[in-house]
Amino acid sequence: MSATTAGIDAGRSSRTRLPGAGLLRGGRETAACALTLTVTAAAGAAALVVAFRRAEWGGNDQFGYFWAGMLIFTLPAAFWGVRRTASARLRLAVLVGYALFTYLPKLLRNPSGPLYHDEYAHWGQAHDILLDGRLFEQNPIVRVIGEYPGLHATVASLAALTGLTVWHAALLLLITTHVLVVLGVAVLAGQLWPDPRIGVAAAFVYSLNSSFLYFDTQLGYESLAIAVLIWALAGGLRTMRAGTRGARIGGVVLTVLLALATVATHHLTALWLTGIFGLIALACTVVSVRRRELVTAARTAWALTSGTALVVAFWMGAVAPRTGSYLDPYLGRALGQFGGLAGGSSGGRTLFSGSVAPWWEQNTAFVAPGFALLAMIGATVLWWRRRRSADPFTTAASAAMLLVGALYFPATLLILTPSGAEGARRSWAFSYLGLAVVVAPMIIALLDRPRRVFTGSLLLCGCALMLVGNNAAGMNPSYRFPGPPVFGSDTKAATPEVLAAAAWMRETQGRETRLVADRYSGLIFGSYGEQEPTTGSESFPTYDLYLAQPGKPISPALLHQLRSWRFEFLVVDRRMAEQVPDIKIYFETNEPIPHDGRPAFTKAQLAKFDTMPWLIKVYDGPHVAIYRFDFDSLGAKIARNPR
């Protein structure tokens, strides 16, 4: 090599080492990322607005606009987040921006008030706390939520401190927790693997679960509790790694306090938190026995599990003893129905029956679980190959998260049963956490192989497939999009007529009046109307009032219950005799009412109340009528139906 050539090479080498060169490249990358995501966020938001407008006007192309809007931002955000050269600040900005953007669909769906079934209950509960200052009051729509006041107390406190309405205080809290969920998953994965790209990948994979866009962004206790669960798990893993006794004790105390906050907010989330800690403790124990390692980590994990379990047991035993009876029927009936399907009997659900979702969205819903299974198999193979070379704690904890993620697959089978479908959907937000944490290392490993462009393109296509398919399987189109009024849909229960009837009831009868109603009238009367409706149950079958044929006696036992429990009014929606509910429910999930595609009631069944002397009509609208119970007239004969 000549002296001249050597000098040139040395000059080039010295220039590449200049401190400002790296900053310049980093600045260019940040500017490119900011420009890309700003443009795609604006385009995506515009497409989402168009999708909602098209749905509101009765169009049929809202699905294409919606997914174009989501993917036009999601895919570039994922690309920038997992780039090897991205700085820590850039990754943080990408995750925060992604979290804010993915709250847009729910924000656009109902920016001004409650819309989903549980939102009416939680909004009403927070509203009552703000008015009366009393916790642990029973809720007429979801009877168990009064015993878990964490969400409602927080929303009411924010409203009182800021002067915001209850709904806007709730939005502020929900947007914050949505951001914390995304960041929390990245931090959780970071407790196992030092590569920050794995944390970003885990956050994006978790965001593909069916609860992320709509269910865990609604005003519901899981929306707050799941953020606390994720940070409790991250804190717990950090505590298990702690090198000093003081740090471990402090970490255990902090994690148990987070567990207390979780159980004070949501029962299922607290149970999942306990179970996940238990699996991690078990995995660490197995490693400590076989390899004489992780002894301290295993003891710490069992301390966290025991502390969390004691807090949950105390709360559910002393504060919320009805939780078990509330949850048991759903699982018991689901297992019974699933057993019937295995035996060849009827009683299952037909997926997408009568759905207006396009064929391609429905097909992705069927493909998504298979794609997730392939990803889990790949993650398991990678874990097996690295189990001896990796950090022992990472090996043990990721094995526990593999088991958590594996629970996603049997839950998908429960979607085939009427009683298990709701529980299956609600479990995916938790099982997907395990899936995301263990699949993320495999994604980064694939990106680090040759032909990164091809591999990255395939991964982005898989991301798009999972995002569309999981949401198609998890939420009905009527929940995702606005549209013309439809009878029998929770999201379209707040019609002007029902709102007017509820307002009349509140203005003329005051608050907290007990009444009997169908599911959809009960939502409005129990929230905006501030009343205490019941929609029936197996032990209190108020739907038998509606089912009774004209001229036939009403069950004396039911009448005795109504009278002794001080029910004053009966709400009748005559559309029950004219239309089939959109979600195939009139009163409650396990109602003994036929669902054969025809209205389950006749006009005579609903008109019979006009002739009963122990019912006095006090309100009559085009479809909604309200009757006052006059139990003192129960001995009188039923008048004949006038011709």
Question: How would you characterize the overall build of this protein?
Answer:
- It is a single chain.
- With 643 residues, the protein is mainly alpha-helical.
- The chain has two domains: 102-480, no CATH class; 490-633, 3-Layer(aba) Sandwich (Rossmann fold), CATH 3.40.50.
- Helix content is 65%, strand content 4%.
- The protein has 25 helices and five strands.
- The protein has helices at 3-16, 19-56, 62-81, 88-101, 104-109, 117-132, 150-162, 166-190, 196-206, 221-241, 245-263, 267-291, 295-319, 323-342, 359-386, 392-406, 408-414, 418-447, 452-474, 477-480, 496-509, 519-526, 543-547, 556-564, 603-607, and strands spanning 514-516, 532-534, 569-573, 615-620, 624-629.
- A five-stranded mixed sheet has the order 2-1-3-5-4, with helices on one face.
- Helix 6 (117-132) crosses helix 7, helix 9 packs antiparallel against helix 18 and helix 10 (221-241) runs antiparallel to helix 11.
- It is globular.
- It starts with a helix and ends in a 14-residue tail after the last strand.
